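Revision sheet: structure tokens.
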Amino acid sequence: MEPRFLLLSDVAAELNVSDSQVYHMVRSGELPAIKIGGRGQWRVERARLEEYIQQKYAETAGWVRDNPLGDRDGE
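Predicted:
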């Protein structure tokens, strides 16, 4: 069974980005997370990460639709 909550480093590995990028996404509110424990360590719920990924797929699909490549001379 997979853990319900992930460390920021686990999220970074899942998304193939740096730890600092995930920290920025959490601090900016882009990626929902909670702070727990006496030292205030960040945790991201796996379900929220999956929702975030689906949201990014939808945003990317919209961007691709609105920014077509156009004809590229035979490609």
